[in-house]
Amino acid sequence: MPREQPLSTPAARSELEALAASLQAVARPPGGPPMAERVDALLAELGDPRMSVVVKVGGTNGKGSVVAMLRACFLRADLAVATFTGPHLSRLTERITLDGAEVPPEPLRRALLEAQAAGEAVVARLGPGARPSFFELLLGAAVILARAWGAEALIVEAGIGGRGDATSRLAAQAAALVTVGEDHLDKLGPTLADVAAQKAGLARPGEALIVGPGVPPALLTAARAAADPGVRVVQAPALESSGAPYATVSLPGLGPARLSLAGAHQAENAAVVAGIWAELHRQGLVAYDALLGVTEARWPGRLELLPGAPAWLLDGAHNPPGVAALAEALPAYGAASERVMLVGVSGGHEAALSALAAIPGELHLVSGFYRAAPLAAQGAMLPPGRVTASWPDVPTAIAALSARRDKALIVVAGSLFLVGAAREVLAP
């Protein structure tokens, strides 16, 4: 497939959306083979990915930023790189990129159809309970597209878990466990040690698992104990860092480098990238100095500043650690008196809403985006008098707040789906 991709058209996008909806509507009956057997069969049907380098990135927070930094490093090394991430902000096509450009709708539709056909072959051999999920088909489409594009590297972001995630079945040169947090504790827990153990299962025998420097010793121990035999677990050392909102870190052997992704927490993500890159360099796969790509990464919706009067700061913080990182970064963007917080959460993220409400500034609630909690439910979680205004949907909120000349900054946070809806209005 040529690097110059055709432009998107409304018709092509509609056809892709219709196919995606139909694939997501198909339920897998119970009683089928384990996920590992099902996905291994799907990948075998699709054939050898033929990539020189595969990296798997897991964890609670920071996965997407690590993928973005790694992609920039591969580009700096002049290696064609494909990525598979999720969830998307606005368009399904964002989830698969080549050299940083998202796949157009029609190639993705064709790749999904090819993955679906491979899935039907798996069903014919192993039974209806082996039907691949939509996530698994989308992963298959990423492999198909990366191979067709001639990508030399593929970076995949795990979903919720690790051992139980389809991405774990890809053979890789390195894997990452960026952070361990309480998201999905109901599925991976009941304890954080259980979460760490599950996420450590992303790496397969013979692969290195690079663990983020912020993972505490007890959880590192749990990850080591749960990792498959033959997995080398290495905790990335923290990088010296300073400056805000863009941290300057000291890269081993390369010296100071100013990160292009905002927030002090990006220093920890850069440390994971440095650990992965050192491992790939040890294997003779990359030039080490291309690690400076961390200064060139782009990742929309994460402390993304859109200039204007007022300016907009979009951040997908949706859990307490993410909100803490946002709160730490905000002083670099001006005084609280000059700020409006436009906040909305999905159901189950009450803790994030409480943490966001604790950030100084005028607080506005919004609903009407994908999976948004109703305004009444959000308001009931907060102390009386804390909310300045509530808006039924994102376009209405943005129209009203765009007219505010008494405020310099509007912060949008609480959900990646909210940020995606805001970007559709502010940066279509």
What does this structure look like?
The protein is an alpha/beta fold and 428 residues long. It folds into 2 domains: 10-295, Mur-like, catalytic domain (UDP-N-acetylmuramoyl-L-alanine:D-glutamate ligase, 3-Layer(aba) Sandwich); 304-426, Mur ligase, C-terminal domain (Protein-Tyrosine Phosphatase, Chain A), CATH 3.90.190.20. 38% of the residues lie in helices and 16% in strands. The protein contains 14 helices and 17 strands. The protein has an 8-stranded mixed β-sheet with strand order 4-3-2-5-1-6-7-8, with helices on both faces. A 6-stranded mixed β-sheet has the order 12-13-17-14-15-16, sandwiched between helices. Strands 9-10-11 form a 3-stranded antiparallel β-sheet, covered by helices on one side. A hairpin with a 3-residue loop joins β10 (248-251) and β11 (255-258).
